[in-house]
Amino acid sequence: MDYIQTSATIGSIVIIILTFPLSMLFCFKVVQEYERAVIFRLGRLQDGEATGPGIFFIIPCIDNFSKVDLRTESFDVPAQEVLTKDSVTVAVDAVVYYKIENPLHAVVNVSDYSRSTKLLSMTTLRNILGTKNLAEVLSDRESISHSMQSMLDAATNPWGVKVERVEIKDVRLPVQLQRAMAAEAEATREARAKVIAAEGEMKASRALKEASDVISENPAALQLRYLQTLNTISAEKNSTIVFPLPMDLLAAFTTTRPRS
């Protein structure tokens, strides 16, 4: 096998020399700063590591290479219909952000790291949601996202993939359940409003009782309150209003003085 590889390499180099300088167009390749090249010579991994960035040399006919993009990529996880722990059917979708950490593993250990990561993301999302009840799915999205990110990162590590972030996008509930939850929320708000109104009435009653106690202790305060009410009404209304005059106001004038 080594003899065949050596002979093929020598033959390719001879062809390069004979076709120089035209052959140089096929021998030099360039990868960008955010790319790496994994080179194979007659099916064997060359140099044991990825090449790049910059220019590199290959031998036509016996060398081939695969480019790997190291930038962060994202994909949408399609909505997954899942039966939660408390037997409620929900549809949940998400978005996953990942990048390649090891170009060699991404090329050698898996045939299509992007497709494999997508399929694994759908399965992982279903598995996690199956262990949660509806309240946890609606309120603990951050916890679900973190759990999914950790599980995906551990599973894709042999593929050279680093899962950086997972976000739950939307949780869709059945229409009947939405109506039931809306009715329950409305009933809760009405009950809370009635309690608040009752507490207000109770506080107002206590305040009125305290005011009446204060006024009853001092008759002059009652007369002042009466005059204040007359003043307020006269300022707001332009019509003529007839009020009965309390006899207590005339008591000072109707008292008969003793004759000398």
Question: What do you see in this structure?
Answer:
- The longest helix is centred in the C-terminal third of the chain and has 43 residues, at 175-217.
- The radius of gyration is 43 Å and the shape is elongated.
- Helix content is 52%, strand content 23%.
- The model has no long low-confidence stretch (mean pLDDT 80).
- 15% of the residues are buried.
- The strands form three sheets. It has a three-stranded antiparallel beta sheet with strand order 3-2-5.
- It has helices spanning 2-18, 24-27, 103-108, 113-129, 134-139, 141-156, 175-217, 219-236, 247-254, and strands at 28-31, 35-41, 44-45, 54-57, 63-69, 73-83, 89-100, 161-172.
- By secondary structure, the chain is of the alpha+beta class.
- The protein has nine helices and eight strands.
- The protein has three domains: 9-68, no CATH class; 73-177, Tetrahydropterin Synthase, Chain A, CATH 3.30.479; 201-230.
Overall number of domains: 3
Instruction: Provide the residue-averaged pLDDT.
Output: 80
Estimated helix fraction? 40-55%
Oligomer: single chain
Please sum up the structure shown.
The protein has 9 helices and 8 strands. The chain is of the alpha+beta class and 260 residues long.
